[in-house]
Write a structure and sequence with these properties.
Blueprint lengths: L6 H13 L8 H11 L1 H16 L5 H23 L11 H6 L6 H16 L6 H21 L16 H4 L2
């Protein structure tokens, strides 16, 4: 255990040291995913550890290139952290919007919101309320259709599809 009992700080330090030699992402979507999983404060600390490690090396063109990569990453990460959506709380919609769109209360709401966040991170959807509300309605419609197909008394629920695909299911 760390001195003074600050175990979370100790774990953070161990994580920084273990990650400091790894490559930093260069693509926007990858940087946003890293922001979502790590947070901007920890990524700034990681950059500081990388700078300190580079400072411990003799000056060379390779060290200068590596320092420039860290600097570019840090600048882009800082811009993205300030301006872009990378956490659920940054989405332009929330759980109340998901319920209003027709999703049933429960895990489906979280799954839908996480799906939207992943789509925003990947650049498939903008973090714009109208686009995200339309996507939520689409998810709610698909979920309602799925639930209708599994309704009690539905003789086809859980059975393979009929018709052209029947032979594929019965092999």
């Amino acid at each position: 255990m760390a001195a003074g009992g600050d175990y979370p700080a100790f774990e953070d330090a161990v994580a920084l040291v273990s990650q400091h030699d790894g490559a930093l992402p260069t693509g926007e979507a990858d940087i946003l995913r890293l922001l979502a999983s790590t947070g901007p404060e920890q990524l700034h600390r990681l950059c500081l550890v990388k700078y300190a490690d580079l400072d411990a090396h003799a000056p060379s063109p390779e060290v200068a290139v590596r320092r420039a990569r860290v600097s570019r990453f840090e600048a882009r990460m800082t811009q993205l952290a300030a301006a872009r959506c990378y956490r659920l709380q940054d989405l332009a919609v929330n759980g109340a919007d998901a319920l209003a769109a027709g999703l049933a209360p429960g895990p489906a709401v979280g799954l839908a919101l996480n799906g939207l966040l992943n789509a925003v991170l990947a650049g498939r959807l903008p973090n714009a309320r109208p686009a995200l509300l339309a996507a939520l309605r689409s998810v709610a419609d698909r979920e309602a259709a799925r639930r209708a197909g599994e309704a009690p008394g539905d003789q086809n629920a859980g059975e393979p599809p009929r018709g052209e695909e029947e032979n594929r299911w019965n092999r």
